[in-house]
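Onboarding guide, step 5: your first structure request.
Type a short instruction followed by the sequence, for example:

Predict the 3D structure of this protein.
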Amino acid sequence: MSLDDIDPGPDPSQSDDGAQRAGIACLRFEPPADPEALGRAWQDHLAPIFAASFRPETDLTMPIAMRSYHLGDLLVGDVIAPAHILVRSQAMIEQQGLDHILLQFYRRGRSRVETSLRADTVSEVQCIVFDLAQPVRIVADPVDATNVVIPRARLETLGCHPDALHGHPLDHDSDPFGRLVHNVVANVVACGDLLDQREALAASTAITQLCATWLRGKEAGRPPHNPDVRIRIRRLVEAELANSKLSPALIATRLGLSRSTLYRLFAPHGIVAYIRDRRLMAAMRMLVRDDRPQAARIAQVAYAVGFSDERTFRRAFKRRFGFVPSTAPQRPEAQCAAGAVLRDWIDSL
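The system replies with structure tokens like these:
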């Protein structure tokens, strides 16, 4: 994918009070002009989450579409796909360190979902829960589905621990509350191009709360979650962002890791670059939520994410996003300035 894959949505329009509405970013799959390149392009589009391959009966002449909206705290979208096989391997998990939950609400189609503990068939009007920190294999017929990607930490703060639901199908049509959850998500996706940033953040909060409540009612016999070491590092970094003394040495000591292991896990850019990027993404979210770009507010955000001085923060922010912090609330690309690919979006949550 390239920057051309980013659909900025509609041009900013004037609201009733005359102020400009900054839209949210949308990533759409754009089929290549060469039909022979379609399969490879689709595999590349899904690569941030799944390794995709095709079944012998796969018909690549049927419609293929996928759109994703970045709401600030989570991603929503929908997909129309041909028959395929999706795999999330242990090697992918260890390399990527994603700590997110993917909910996929089927509207059409069937699939067989295989995990280390179970194998289930998912059919229309069912939702499948994927813990992206656990391996899975999906053998799917042509499907039409609505998607939600939520950071696990946001669900856990609401008392939801969906680990044991990995690969488990849930009826979202016969269950009244499940139907409510799906309808809300589907309607947010349907009007995604019309939302501004504040509406998107409000929708994000509502969807997280609805999903947490629904999944919390489905949990049973939850096994202890033993996250991959890269996920544990990410969690520690998020918890210590405000600590200006957060460093590779501190992380290595806290988690009992060697320096060489720590640097290897975050090659080629390194753990220091990762910490700085997480600080800047956290600052971006704070600024998008507040449309008062006073100097005092910028300084407050800088210190809140662990920068020791405002000047260093402003320089790093400009280098990372291409614009100064005070203009962040007015920019529709603010939530994913470097998000030319789906993986950048997921990392930004």
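Each response can be followed by summary notes, for example: Residues 1-20, 332-340 have pLDDT under 50 and may be disordered.
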